[in-house]
Structures are given as C-alpha cells and as structure tokens.
DNA sequence: GCATACAGACCAACTAGTCGGTTTGTAATA
DNA sequence: TATTACAAACCGACTAGTTGGTCTGTATGC
C-alpha cells in the first residue's frame, strides 16, 4: 500500500498522451507500452479506462476547489478575495496544465456516475465566484449594473481558455498572466469610487490617478 | 448537384449527436439510422467520417471569419470595430451553437491535412482581433499598458466559453449577452479619456458620468 | 445507356477488458 | 537465519464486441 510507482507512472503517461491526442486517440495498449507496463498492471490499478479519466478529472477539480476556498477564507474583502481566487486559478496551470486540458476537453466522455461527482464540484467552484461577485456589488466595490452570472462566466471562460494557448515556457510568466487578468477583470468590475480606493487599486497594473 | 437533401440531413443529425455525445461517442451507423439514411448514402456524400468533421469545422470558421472582416471594414474606429466584431461573434452562437461546440471540443481529432486548413483561418481570426487592439492602443482609445496578446486571448476565451453554458432559450437574449460582454470588455480596455468620449461610451451599459 | 444517388450486407481492423499464471514483498514460524 | 505462507502487484496472450469503411446492387433521371 506504500508503493504507488506504477499507478503514478500510468497517470503521468496517460496525461501526456491524452493532452496531445485526446482520450479516444489513445489506447490502453499505448499507455502501458509507453510507460513500460502491461495490460494487467493497468487493470490492477484501475477498474477501467473510464476510471482513469475520472481520476484525472477529480485530482484537478478537487485541488482547484480547495485553493478557491482557502483564498476565500484567507481574505476578507470581495476584491481581495476575487483577485486571490483568480491568481490561484491561473497558477494551477503551471502544475496541472495537462489535467486541465483533459478536464476541459474530455469531460463529455465521463460515464454518468463519474460525471455527476465532477459536476457537483464544478458547480461549487462556480458558486464561490458568483458569491464573491455578489458580495462585491453589495459592498459597492463592483458595479451594480453587472450581471453576476455573466461576469462570473466571463471570468471562468477567460481563465479556462488558457488551456488552449498557455505554454509553461512561453514569454509570460504565470504570475504576469495572473496580474494581467486581475487588471482586466477589476477594470471591468470596479466602481469609480472603488478604483480611487488606494487599497483596492493596488491590484491594477496602473493606478487610475496616475495619468 | 442541385439537390443536397440527404447531405444536409446527415450534417444536421451529426451535429446534434456530436454536440451531445462527442465525435467519438457517435458512430456512423447511428448517424445514418437517426436520419433515415444508409451507410451507402453517407459515404456517397462524404469521403470519411473525418471529412464530415472537417466540413462542420469549416462552415463555422469560414462564416465567423467573414463576419469579422465585414465588421472591420464597415466601421472605422477601433472601439466600434471591436464592439461589432464581438457582437457578431456572440450572435453566431444563436445559429451555430452545435458547430461551435464541435469546433471547440473536437478540433484535436481533425486529421493533419484538415487541421492545417482550419488553423490557418483560426489564426487569421485571432490576428484581426489583435490588429484592432493595436489600433485602439495607438489611437489612445485603449490603455497603453495592455498586452495585446493577453487581452485578445481573454476576449476570445470569454466568448468562446459560451459554448459551455449558452442555451438559446435561456433567460438572456443573445443581444443582451453581446451588450454585457462589450460593456465588460470596454471597461477593461478603454482609457479614462476614451470613457469620457460620448461617442465611445455609448457602448457601455452605464455612462461613467452618470453617477 | 450512362451517370448520379442511395441501399444494406459484409469485412477487416482495432480496442477495452479478461484470465490464468508469475513475480515480488512481507510477516509469521521454527 | 532459513523457510514457509500468503497476498498484492504485475504480466501478456486472448477474446468478444464494435466501428469505419467497402462493395455489389438498384433505381431514377437525363
């Protein structure tokens, strides 16, 4: 029970292959061949190929959900909470890029019983963001005319879309991307008063008053 | 050559099925059964299942690329151009939601020769957006400190992500969504001076000066 | 009579999953 | 320490089912 060598190797190999060729573009035979294992070894560790897919999904969504909850608890104002959540969300791409790609590309192929569990967590994640946005509007930090749903889905969309273009060795560091996203998002959410607040505008790339 | 009855029926059926079950979750047999055709009919109209997938991709990207170019030509200022492009982009979801879902989900499974053609158009689309953003910065309508790439990819991401949540019969009309997106995007891009410009701020949900 | 449009039985290839067997680790016993 | 006992980890040939694609045949229009 202490050794998980093979299981981890299978996951890692599968992740790399799934990211490149898609879930259906990779056979179990190929996975085991590529990581020097066998069919038997695979099915000793996983009930099915579907379970492997579920495992990959679950590792990622569980991690990112925890991070969001931590960020929510750690900070006390809507703006700080939102920025922290987004930063953590963006950061995840540094470690879990293949997971996220599989998560966003192959979720449709999850077996119903697995899909349900994943969707439940995905929904909770969304609700955290909606919650922060609502709090921000109530606190007059975010504009009142915003649609919480639309703003939330926009944020989730722009960050998630990173899986299509983010390269860990690209010209921008993950922290730069996170900062740029926060800048864009806050500019679109903040009220004029909030932008003049020193404490809040520290998350912007350039202060409003600078010009 | 005038009658395309069957071909269109096949595409329509395939689209519905692909959207729901994914490309690999739908067999050719199922497609032809569901639209009252036959294997022979299918392979008379398409060289292969892959070609059908390519066709779906091409119809959508060709359409949306044209719309963006039209919008670019029709308007003369960066802000107007951007808003028109985004509006047209969002509107497409009304007609082509299944196409877009397939486009965003199954592109990885395109055969290399097909993938190349699609990517070329996808790239051109991206470049139009980047171009407008650059023009906006030069014209001092958009903030100078923005990263054109990041801002562009954010926009593309937030709109494309609609395929995950947009329901044609949802509570918001497509025009409302387009307006809300434009509002969010402009707030994140515009300079303070530009926001004070009557002509430009007409694209915002609420004028800056209102409060 | 000839091409186009379509039908449907058929095939070859592929793939997830199985199953009997082997190796490896480990703990109890002598 | 050596030996036995047992279970978990792992192997790989095999299978049963599925799927994209073919091929022969038919009907319809020009």
Describe this entry's structure for a reader:
- The first copy, chain A, is mostly helical.
- Chain A folds into two domains: 1-46, Arc Repressor Mutant, subunit A (Orthogonal Bundle); 48-202, Tetracycline Repressor, domain 2.
- Chain A has helices at 5-21, 28-34, 39-45, 49-74, 78-106, 112-138, 148-160, 162-165, 174-189, 192-196, 198-201.
- Chain A starts with a helix and ends in a 10-residue tail after the last helix.
- The interface between A and B is large, with 42 and 42 residues.
- Chain A binds a DNA duplex (30 and 30 nucleotides) through helix 3.
- Helix-strand string of chain A: HHHHHHHHHHH
From the N-terminal CA to the C-terminal CA of chain A, the straight-line distance is 62 Å
Beta-strand segment tally of chain A:
0
**Amount of helix of chain A:** over 70%
Count interface residues per chain for the largest interface. A-B, 42 and 42 residues
Comma- or semicolon-separated keywords:
2 domains; DNA-binding; disordered C terminus; mainly alpha; Arc Repressor Mutant, subunit A; 211 residues; homodimer; elongated; Tetracycline Repressor, domain 2
């Amino acid at each position: 029970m202490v050794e998980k060598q093979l299981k981890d190797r299978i996951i890692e190999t599968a992740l790399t292959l799934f990211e490149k060729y898609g879930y259906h573009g990779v056979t179990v035979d190929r996975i085991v061949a590529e990581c020097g294992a066998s069919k038997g070894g695979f099915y000793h560790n996983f009930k099915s190929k579907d379970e492997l897919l579920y495992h990959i999904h679950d590792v990622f969504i569980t991690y990112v959900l925890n991070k969001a909850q931590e960020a929510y608890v750690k900070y006390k104002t809507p703006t700080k909470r939102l920025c922290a959540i987004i930063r953590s969300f963006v950061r995840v791409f540094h470690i879990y890029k293949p997971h996220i790609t599989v998560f966003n590309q192959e979720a449709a192929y999850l077996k119903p019983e697995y899909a349900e569990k994943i969707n439940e967590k995905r929904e909770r994640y969304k609700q955290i963001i909606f919650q922060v946005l609502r709090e921000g509007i109530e606190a007059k930090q975010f504009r009142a005319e915003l649609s919480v749903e639309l703003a939330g889905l926009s944020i989730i969309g722009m960050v998630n879309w990173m899986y299509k273009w983010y390269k860990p060795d690209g010209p921008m560091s993950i922290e730069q991307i996170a900062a740029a996203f926060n800048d864009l998002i806050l500019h679109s959410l903040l009220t004029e008063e909030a932008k003049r607040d020193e404490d809040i505008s520290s998350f912007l790339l350039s202060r409003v008053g600078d010009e």
